[in-house]
Every structure is written in structure tokens, then in C-alpha cells.
Amino acid sequence: MDEQHRKWFGILNRLHDAMLNGKGRDVQQSVMAEMVAYTRTHFLQEELLLKTKGFPRFAEHREKHTSFTKQVQALEAKMLGGSALLTIDVMNFLKNWLKDHILAEDARYGTFLKAG
User: Considering the entire predicted model, what is its pTM?
Assistant: First the structure.
């Protein structure tokens, strides 16, 4: 899972770098599509692991995944519809959510898995 988390931040860092270089618009659709696809892939794999191992907070953890997925899909839909562009605020939301989720929520299952 840690390797997948690093890949996620790699996707965000590519977008952030492009935005800093004035090329955010050029890559935002492809990066956002990759983010949505990778979110689905990662969450499915993580949830399968947690369910298989009997993680006691599985339902709560899965709900957080569902909420984030809906938010990311809504951002992508707005962007594709032309009513919103990715901004530094959106970048900060994505990075902060991932960072907070990994450091808090995923750390809980890490402790659980290590104990088991």
C-alpha cells in the first residue's frame, strides 16, 4: 500500500509542477483522469485487503473512500464540463486529503495489520 500511496503523490506532484510552470491547463484533464482511475484501483485493493484481514473499522474506512471518490469525480465532471479549472485550492484539497487520510486513517489499519 505504501508504494501505491507514493504513486498517488507522484500523480499530484506532476500536476503541481505543471501548474507552477504555467502548464496546468495542458495536463489537468489527463492528470485528473489518472487520479480518478487510480483512486478506484487503490481503494479497491486496499478495501479487499482490509476486508480479508477483518479490519474492525472497515465500514467506516470504506465510507471515507466513497466520499473522497465522489468528490474527485465531481471535480473531474466540473472540469470536463468547462465550469471549473484545477486551481491551487483544488491541489491543496487533494494533497491534504490524501496526506491526512494516509497519516491518520491508513495508519490505523497499518497498526492493526502489524499486530495480526
Answer: 0.81
